[in-house]
Design brief:
Blueprint: E1 2-5, H1 7-14, H2 21-29, E2 35-38, H3 40-50, H4 53-56, H5 63-77, E3 79-81, H6 88-96, H7 105-118, E4 121-124, E5 136-139
Parallel strand pairs: 1-2, 1-4, 2-3, 4-5
Amino acid sequence: MTFLPDVNVWVAIAVAEHEHHDRAARWLESTHGHSLAFCRVTQMGFLRLLTNVHVMKGDRFSPGGAWQLFDRLAQEAGARVVPEPELLERIWRRGTAMAVGGHNTWTDAYICAFAEATGFTVVTFDQGLAGHGKTNVRLLDSM
């Protein structure tokens, strides 16, 4: 099985002070024998949040420091960046056809479409992701 953690799961794994760090770390330890993946959107979101002063407060990373943490986390977790699958846009468009909008509509639909196109399982703290089409979603809040 390949897991596609949501951006907030990656941040919780990487930042010990994150409110969900312990839960995310326990989940990560349970993934032995499985693969972990970033898509370009989760990679970019992870880097963006690490360098955001409002998210990280006084502990924000420089862009170079964020890349170093990304590289270390990807290596330690055995995660890889997976290129976009060919059917992604068709599935993504279908997933947004009935959407009413909102601040996470596009990103959530993209991540779910990516998971559907690849057969990956999204791992998230966000219950809203569970309702997207044919996507397999594992909620860490329910673990």
